[in-house]
Amino acid sequence: MKFWVRQRISVKASWNKIARHYQRKTRISTEDFHYGALAPGESKLRLLGDVKGKEVLELGCGGGQNTIALSKLGAFAEGIDISPEQINFARELARTEKVAAKFHVRSIDHLGIFSDEGKDLVVSSFALSYVEMLDNVFSEVYRILKKGGLFVFADSHPFTNRGRAVRVGGRSLWALDQYFKRGVMVWTWPRFEDGTTASFRSYHRTIQDYYDALTKAGFTVERIVEPEPVRMKGTKPVEETPCYAPDVAKEYLIWRNVPYTIIFKARKPG
Ligand SMILES: C[S@@+](CC[C@H](N)C(=O)[O-])C[C@H]1O[C@@H](n2cnc3c(N)ncnc32)[C@H](O)[C@@H]1O
Prior knowledge:
By secondary structure, the chain is α/β, with parallel strands linked by helices. The protein has helices at 3-8, 11-26, 42-45, 65-72, 84-96, 134-144, 158-161, 207-217, 246-249, 252-255, and strands at 55-59, 76-81, 102-105, 119-125, 145-156, 164-168, 171-175, 183-188, 199-204, 220-225, 232-233, 236-237, 261-267.
């Protein structure tokens, strides 16, 4: 795709366009913190520790389900997202669920409204790959975390970014290609029922790139988690944290054998 076409894509406009359809189609639970469509939730992975009374910020909170789930567990939780449509949905959901979570329309790479060392925990689920300058984001997250604070984020596993599904001997396999080709990826959301779609721009990084960026910002990486997907029967989940994205569920025969999600748990030294 030509440079000028890539530049024309606005992630904010694209998320505004699909937000309503996405929220209707996915129906993400607010009862458990989720690490993306296919991974088990926090009730199983237990990466965040006790959040009761903690100051928490979610980056790229979308419809606010994770921020709300953390509020229900007793955290003082705030979420930011670049898309006003997503934040409108989040505010409405928080009102409906009678939860005092706060939401801001703001880009992940503008954390200036948050004071130094004010947060115990910063989380993000499937949002950081939309951001180009990851080093800046990590150093800002480091700044706003208290000493000893945690930064936990999930995103699509770098193996899923590059490659494609192929059929070999009747099996669906993932053909990984160009893993080391860092940088921008342009892709189109699968059409919703009324034909709505949008183009997006996100950034491929290797596992080592994430690790190096975290340590460069000053974090200690405590864990890298590659969760096995929730178990499914056909396209139906058989576990308590279900796959909430039907498009992903359709490809379950691939993702039960190939990592779909990666989670980093990093700490600001105390
Ligand atoms: C796949 S959704 C994930 C939403 C939410 N974290 C969840 O798991 O349900 C990605 C979200 O990232 C947001 N986003 C993308 N780029 C952003 C940026 N630069 N700053 C803030 N939010 C951003 C989008 O608007 C969208 O709501």
